[in-house]
Amino acid sequence: MPLLLIAEGIKRIGASRFALLNTSGPVITLFLCYIILQETMTYQQIIGSMVIIGILYMAEKRNDIYKKNKITAEIEGDPATTSPKTTRMY
Known about the structure:
- This protein is mainly α and 90 residues long.
- It has one domain.
- Helices cover 74% and strands 0% of the residues.
- It has helices spanning 2-13, 15-23, 25-36, 43-76.
- The longest helix is centred in the middle third of the chain and has 34 residues, at 43-76.
- The model has no long low-confidence stretch (mean pLDDT 79).
C-alpha cells in the first residue's frame, strides 16, 4: 500500500518535488512527536531541523528561478538556452 501511495504522489507532483518533500519527513516526525507526544527537543534537533528546512527552501527557490529563466529564454528565442529542434533523416 505505501508503495502505491508513493507512486501516485510522484505521478501527481513530479519526482523532484516528491524528493524534496520526502527529505522533510524526519523533520515533520520530530515536530509531530513534540506536539502530540510532548517529547522534548534538543538544541541539535532544532538546529538540524532548521538547516534541513533552509536547504529545502533554497532548493525550491533555485528550481523556481531555473524554470522562470527557461520559460523566459524560450519566449525570447534565445538559442543558447533553448533545446535544439531535432529533424528526422530519411
